[in-house]
Amino acid sequence: MKRFCLSAASLCAVFLITACSNEQGADESKTIAEINQTNVTEDEFVGELKERFGQQVLNDIVSGIIIDDKAEELNIDSEQIDKEFENFKSEYGVEEDEQLLSMLQMQFQLPVDSIEELKEEVIKPQLVLEQLATAEVEVTEEDKKQHFEDNKEDLVTVNARHILVEDEKTANEVIEKLEDGEDFSKLAEEYSQDPGSADNGGELGEFQRGTMVEEFEKTAFSLEPEKVSDPVESVHGFHIIEVLEKKDSYEELESSIEESLTQEQAKSGEEVMQELREGAKINIKESSYEDWIQ
């Protein structure tokens, strides 16, 4: 995933082809390996890489240059990129820059070695595509209010935390401690059996209906903020739920409604990239590569 959704395989091929091509000038037929009585030359190695990955790599390089030119035209600066990077961290639930980098490297095999490379080759192209995808979208106040009226119940969000235990006796024990003034977060860390939230004080973040199991959801959306529920039984065990915040008014939901309607009307990244490529001046100097450009 380098530049415009470049695959990890293609990225590795870019690096290998580039590195080997840079060395070819010094020694075109340098032997790089010997297997039994057979030599493998650098020419053979690079030729194989080009055969397997060349067309995709060339198209990715073309797309990358087009994206860079468009970013300059749109005046996408470091401040915008840094802001989007912070949104990226928030989306993935991480606080440290290096933590995000490590997660992307491990989870998506993203071959970027630094935060600056991530910003330049992932975040910036994303900003370009998003800006162009929504450039012609217009969401009116009437559109937003109508959407709110039509989907009011489904749009409501709550921000909640919980403590999950195995039995009702333990749940009541936790509730007694809460009533005695003990801290919810610390009790979640001590008692909760939910590995996804226990270390974070039981916090689940913001969610809409249709996200959680029915019993949990019914209670969470009926609670007022800062209120703690009685034990709620589900297939997972017994939950003690506290709602931290609830958004159910148009004013509170307006920005998310606008974002949702904008995304519904936006072009896809593929459409945007196709339009950019069609509008670019691509002049293939070597005839053997003419059929490679998509």
UniProtKB/TrEMBL annotation:
Q: Which reaction does it catalyse?
A: [protein]-peptidylproline (omega=180) = [protein]-peptidylproline (omega=0)
Q: Does the keyword Protein transport apply?
A: no
User: InterPro entries under this entry?
Assistant: Foldase_PrsA, PPIase_dom_sf, PPIase_PpiC, PPIase_PpiC_CS, PrsA_foldase, Trigger_fact/SurA_dom_sf
A GO cellular component term found in this entry reads: plasma membrane
What family is reported? Belongs to the PrsA family.
Function of the molecule: Plays a major role in protein secretion by helping the post-translocational extracellular folding of several secreted proteins.
Q: What is this protein called?
A: Foldase protein PrsA
Phylogenetic lineage: Bacteria, Bacillati, Bacillota, Bacilli, Bacillales
Gene name per UniProt: prsA
